[in-house]
Amino acid sequence: MKNMISLALGLGLLAGAFAVQAQAPRASPADKVSATLNGKAVTIDYSRPSLKGRTVGKEVAPFGKVWRTGANEATRLECAGDLMLGSLHVPAGSYSLYTIPGESEWTLIVNKTAKQWGTVYDEKMDLGRAKMKVGKTAASVEQLTIALEAKGAAGTLKISWGGVEASIAVAAH
User: Fold this and answer.
1) Which of 41, 106, 126, 160 is the most exposed place for a label (fewest CB within 10 A)?
2) Domain contains 14
């Protein structure tokens, strides 16, 4: 009987520890941006890592390498209608977004596997890639920020972090 009580107490403590851990806030909080293009919803779900003294292109989002464009789960794009991201046609649906940062140009990658952990990337599952323009931000952006700016059927997708802003035209079709 004593062993059963000890086992029950141990299991209860273990379950409580898991519950506390599950409720702890993530270091990179989740965020969502949405816009309506030509009457169709476009949403991006992502996690927002902080620089914490690191440099974009070096310690984080290294230049020339596929980057998960956020933290935690892969950044997810959901579009209720067909889109053009730069020159890339994206059919209505759900996708994951990755980037290849560069000093003068970024590459946006749209991957057909929508729900996956951010570091799980399979190039064979890419829908396609499109070039992004790179500029400088007015002030340093500590926490990764993704924005969707829309007007009617067109707009801009922007990724800002540190002193860098990568952008690409987005349009509904």
Assistant:
1) 41
2) no
Q: Which domain holds residue 105?
A: 27-172
Q: What is the pLDDT of residues 17-33, one digit of tens each?
A: 555 455 678 789 999 99
Residue 115 located in a structural domain: yes
The pairing of strands 75-79 and 83-85 is unpaired
Query: Does the residue 33 lie in any domain?
Result: yes
Q: Distance between CA 44 and CA 159 in Å, rounded?
A: 11
Count the domains in the chain.
1
pLDDT in tens, 35-73: 999 999 999 999 999 999 999 999 999 999 999 999 999
Give this prediction's pTM: 0.85
∠ Cα 33 51 141 (to 5°): 55
